[in-house]
Amino acid sequence: MGISLSKTQLLTELRKEQTAWEALLDEIGEAHMTQPEVAGGWSIKDIVAHLTGWRRRSVRRFQAFLNHEPDFSPPWPPELREDDEINAWIYEANRNRPLADVLSDSREVFQQLVDTLDAFSEDELQDLRRILGLEEEQVSGSTFFAHFHEEHEPDMRAWLDKVKKEG
To answer: What InterPro entries does the record point to (predicted)?
Structure first.
């Protein structure tokens, strides 16, 4: 097992990742966040809602673990099992919502993640790593942003570069 971060280090890194995320959103600007076709027909707003939906699931999962509950309810209908159908549900649930609400939810769910992780003791955080199957990898703030970095950040940055060149 690798050297694990302390809770303080983990939360510091997590906040640093959120600051970088917010900086990217600021650079994009709210005026551009509802334009379609950033990635696969999705807008920046759609990507924010997508990431928030999955983060909300993580928060619920961590809260259940923290409260010694055997299971948790995902934020989507329980019969949805496949990522594609869950992503479609998140898209439909958010596509007509105002941008301000989607951005507010993103920030709120991030704060819930921080608050939930902060409620764990150092030992409980190590148990959480084991339960999540992360014993062999270093868990850091970037762990919680890995999907964004791998799947969405390249598209968002390429789209932003295109918008800047056109503008």
So the answer is: DinB/YfiT-like, DUF1706
